Amino acid sequence: MAGEPLKVLDALDVAKTQWYHFTAIVIAGMGFFTDAYDLFCVSLVTKLLGRIYYHKQGSDKPGELPGNVAAAVNGVAFCGTLSGQLFFGWLGDKMGRKRVYGMTLMLMVICSVASGLSFSSSPTSVVATLCFFRFWLGFGIGGDYPLSATIMSEYANKRTRGAFIAAVFAMQGFGILAGGVVAIIVSAAFDAKYPAPSYQENPNASTIPQADYVWRIIVIFGAFPALLTYYWRMKMPETARYTALVAKNAKQAAADMSKVLQVELESEQDKIEEGKSKNEFGLFSKSFLRRHGLHLLGTTSTWFLLDIAFYSQNLFQKDIFTAIGWLPPAKTMNAIEEVFKIARAQTLIALCSTVPGYWFTVALIDVMGRFAIQLMGFFFMTVFMFALAIPYNHWTLPDHRIGFVVMYSLTFFFANFGPNATTFVVPAEIFPARLRSTCHGISAASGKAGAIIGAFGFQAVEKAFGVKKTLIILGVVNALGALFTLLVPESKGKSLEEMSGEAGEEVERETEARAESRRTMPV
Asked: Membrane-crossing residues (predicted)?
């Protein structure tokens, strides 16, 4: 197989965009829709949980989750996601992408429903049960990262592969948007049905008993999109690259892709047998370190740095809106009204910046390339973060608050038309097939480690240094992301085998031999 690629892989690389490409985008993308919905919807209801379960009689302000509880509710799913990315990434290379894909989806569905059914007699037990199920929800979500990216990359043609993988990830934007829309609809319906006074008018009556249903409905809704895609995920054939290059079954790979592409393909099992002993280095080998060590450092470090900034902004944007006066003081609203206004603000940000940013990446990633988009995104995130932070007092004045929101939205736009999309795309393209899911899982887990720092550390940093200095710190983090982007290779227009080194092994060895002979020739 060393001299030329298998015809089944070549057929996938040069295939025209067909219906099965869009089917794969929707099937994999709905998983990311659910992922984003589940991970972000909890940020909409944390204030409501505080009012319901941590109300103090006689207090002049509504109940709030204690700092450690708020950090746990926001961050525990990320801990599960990190674990799931590592475990399912490794399992996807061992058992196959398709076999593991169904496991992650059912785990997401079951734990979404269970999170919303976290009933108990005491607030501590409710929150503990919610955190338990959100950890396992995150574990399932974590598996979706390496598997969805790997499946889409291995199905796509090389001309539009970046756009297809980015389109899967772009469904995250719709998931965030849906989280806001569902919260708006549910809270508006309950507020209309059960009107209540503001907290300052009547503290006890401001949180109606039915408010306990509001957060549960919002959380449980995340199960339905995942459930709808389960049947179609199970119908997808295993990717040809896994079947041929990892399972070493060229006949099955050709048969599966003949159905998908609707063309006759030769099995070429003899090429598989010839290539069995070649290019079989492992993750912890010197060969991997030499060929892909810097690549893995680049994908892990950039995703880590991005997610510190991205998730800090996303999870706590309601606090920033309150600080600049975009949300009224909590005591001037009832519990359901507060959910509505937080959801409305988050939905506006998603609609104006988050969603468009994702789709700009989809449109331009195979034109500009991954490297250029990622570097540009980090650069502008740094610029806008410093532009918000340095004259921060200026932005808090009533006349300038809209300008603050516009600048804040632009940081989201360039995160999504930038590294938030490309850090997901690149690890699915540059590593060998037998390590692709594992390396993507490691890269994604590094990102979630950054998200955990954002989720658990942001509140402590903000309390210690204030919003202004915190924004400066996030600006420095983005600048470091731009620096580490220099380690990430460009994969635009190249086949997966070209990027990973699985094609042209003999050519590479001959080149190395010629270079060695030149070094040893007498002068």
From this structure: 20-46, 100-119, 163-190, 213-232, 348-365, 371-390, 402-419, 471-489
Q: Which residue pairs from 322-328 have beta carbons closer than 8 angstroms and sit at least 24 positions apart in sequence?
A: 323/396, 323/467, 324/395, 324/396, 324/401, 324/404, 324/405, 325/396, 325/398, 325/401, 326/401, 326/405
> In 3-state terms, what secondary structure has residue 109?
helix
Instruction: Report the percent of the chain where pLDDT is more than 70.
Output: 90
Question: What tens digit of pLDDT does each residue of 105-149 get?
Answer: 899 999 999 998 887 778 889 989 999 999 999 999 999 999 999
Q: Flag whether 154 is in a domain.
A: yes
Which tokens sit at 262? 């609707």
Cβ atoms of residues 184 and 324 within 8 Å: no
199, 333 Cβ separation under 8 angstroms: yes
* Residue 7 in domain: no
The closest of 72, 390, 41 to 216, measured between CA atoms, is 41
| 520 found inside a domain | no
- Count of domains observed in the chain: 1
The CATH number of whichever domain residue 254 belongs to comes to 1.20.1250.20
**Is the pLDDT assigned to residue 456 strictly greater than 80?**
no
- Residue appearing with tokens 């007498």: 522
Residue with tokens 């089944």: 8
Given its phi and psi angles, is residue 504 left (phi above 0), alpha (psi -120 to 50 degrees) or beta?
left
Which residue range is the domain that position 445 belongs to? 13-265+284-507
Q: Who's near 66: CB < 8 A, 6+ residues apart? A: 54
* The predicted structure's pLDDT at residue 151: 93
Residue 273, domain member (yes or no)? no
**pTM of the predicted model, to two decimals?**
0.88
Residue 515: per-residue pLDDT: 46
